Amino acid sequence: MRPPSHPASIADLIDLLKTRFDASLRSCVEYRPQSKRILYLREDVDSATANRRLVRVDNLYQTTRVNRAPIEADPELGQLEASLHYFGAVVVVHLLDRGGRAIGFSVDADALPAVQTLLVECLEVGFEGSEG
Prior knowledge:
35% helix; globular; alpha+beta
């Protein structure tokens, strides 16, 4: 069983993100190889703008997904578990599960130090969303 502070599902992860980042949380998106969907969008983030940006950020996810597994056995640079993208005012994080899906979230850039802490905690337990 996971400790209560670690996400067990997408809903748990969104709750955790809201708790940790409060007003800095901008969005949460589920990425799959053939689809993407916005799970959470902060009130002041325009939906049409978010959907246009999603095309660009989905390209980052696709690259991350394709490069998740190492080309050869490499004990130092094994599986890619997460990626972080810094856009100046916004930080985008992709947490990858073993099936190729990613949960991405974006926060205001001033929340970057808290992102690292959360990332380490999620990877310690291995993020595996349970929702289909």
